[in-house]
Design a protein that fits this description.
42% of the residues lie in helices and 20% in strands. By secondary structure, the protein is of the alpha/beta class. α1 crosses α4 and α10 runs parallel beside α11. The longest helix has 47 residues.
Length: 409
């Protein structure tokens, strides 16, 4: 359909002027006085003069050289220019014409009532329609816009929730890499901070972006949440400001369920021999930070304190000067500065460490490496692709065995 377009923006046709020439002056003045809402002018005039509203509208349109819209449909209000609102167009008795996501013009009850800012659009198009048709289409347009905005808000909330879960997953991973399963969240007006203490007593902290504050507060309203396989317990210390989070995986929960009642994490308590002070239960020596952190997390779940070193040579120096004294050493076989075998030979020559058990880890499948390690006096030789729980069981056996010997003595 070809729309009528006006070139002179200041000369918009007026439905009132057309009506004044269509009816007698007395009738016109009575109609104007009796219809304060100019959007309803044609309907009221049709009632006064006894004419069908749509027939009167077409007749007035012919006088103004303006076509009547064959139908009025809801508009895609989300594509309106920012300076154009449905509320403004409703007051003026208009509904937007939008094609290809572009604002082209309006369907209106009176072209002369189109607001001034909208007249600046080049080649503005307009058609006539009754206010009843326009109002109905505007209502549907507003409802559709509200539904669209609600859907967009829901998608935004979902994206924020997804981002929050990612951030919290990273937080959990960081805390667990230090052997802990608990952290605090401190919320202030300008920051969100997480705080934790490692098994070695060191303090750790980080920040969460302020954009995630709303979904985070929603997440913290529950006493328990789930992130992947982790079940997060939430304790509110000060509402909206301070929270404590601790978590456990499916494996721990399954074990508790089988036992019938919740059980605390078992802590292996060890007592050092008389006159000997141990600084840590297990010393892990592995040049791979990633693998070392995995082993540390497994030990932490069993309440076993761990310290990690990435250099066998540095670890040997600390052992020699007494700055670190473990009950158990877990060492990688292949390391760049000093091999695990060389480390064991030199460590065995140090006095006062006769009761320290050594476990060797490797990716090798060769039997010769295992035989050599056993001959050096290691407690056990384990491959890295084996379940880490196997190593934990070996270490627990040693720690508990040494404790039993002490108590028997």
């Amino acid at each position: 359909m070809k729309f009528f377009k006006f070139a002179k923006k200041e000369n918009l046709p007026s439905i009132e002027k057309a009506l004044s020439k269509f009816v007698k002056r007395v009738e016109y003045e009575a109609i104007v006085r009796g219809c304060p809402d100019r959007r309803q002018l044609v309907r009221y005039a049709a009632e006064v003069i006894g004419k069908d509203e749509h027939e009167l509208l077409r007749a007035l349109g012919e006088r103004m050289l303006v076509k009547v819209a064959p139908r009025v449909i809801p508009t895609e209000a989300q594509h309106l220019p920012k300076e154009v609102t449905l509320a403004q167009l409703r007051l003026a008795g208009c509904i937007p014409i939008i094609r290809d996501h572009v604002f082209r013009g309006v369907i209106c009850t009176d072209p002369s009532r189109i607001p001034e800012p909208y007249r600046s659009y080049e080649s503005l198009e307009y058609l006539l329609a009754s206010w009843e048709e326009i109002a109905k289409a505007l209502g549907e347009s507003e409802r559709s816009l509200e539904e669209l905005r609600a859907h967009e808000q829901e998608k935004l909330r979902e994206r924020e929730q997804e981002m929050l879960l990612r951030v919290l997953h990273l937080l959990i991973g960081e805390v667990e890499s230090h052997g802990r399963d608990e952290a605090k969240l401190s919320i202030s007006e300008d920051s969100i901070r997480y705080l934790f203490t490692s098994l070695t007593g060191r303090s750790g902290s980080g920040q969460i972006h302020q954009a995630l504050l709303v979904p985070l507060l929603g997440f913290l309203e529950s006493v328990q949440q789930r992130i992947g396989e982790k079940v997060i317990s939430i304790q509110c210390i000060e509402k909206g400001r301070l929270y404590r989070l601790n978590w456990e995986g499916e494996e721990e929960r399954a074990q508790q369920s089988e036992e019938g009642v919740p059980q605390p994490i078992r802590v292996v308590k060890t007592l050092p021999p008389t006159g000997v002070h141990y600084t840590v239960s297990v010393l892990v020596i592995d040049d791979s930070e990633t693998f070392g952190s995995v082993i540390e997390r497994f030990f932490a779940r069993e309440g076993i304190t761990v310290e990690r070193r990435t250099s066998a040579k540095d670890a040997l120096a600390e052992l020699a000067n007494g700055s670190v004294r473990p009950r158990v050493i877990v060492s990688d076989l292949h390391m760049p500065d000093m091999s695990g075998s060389q480390f064991v030979r030199e460590f065995k020559s140090l006095p006062g460490f006769e009761d320290v058990a050594i476990f060797m880890l490797t990716s090798d499948e060769e039997i010769d490496s295992e035989v050599d390690a056993i001959r050096l006096g290691v407690e056990a030789y384990l491959r890295k692709n084996e379940d880490p729980r196997l190593l934990c069981a070996h270490v627990e056996r040693v720690l508990e065995g040494k404790r039993s010997i002490q108590q028997a003595a």
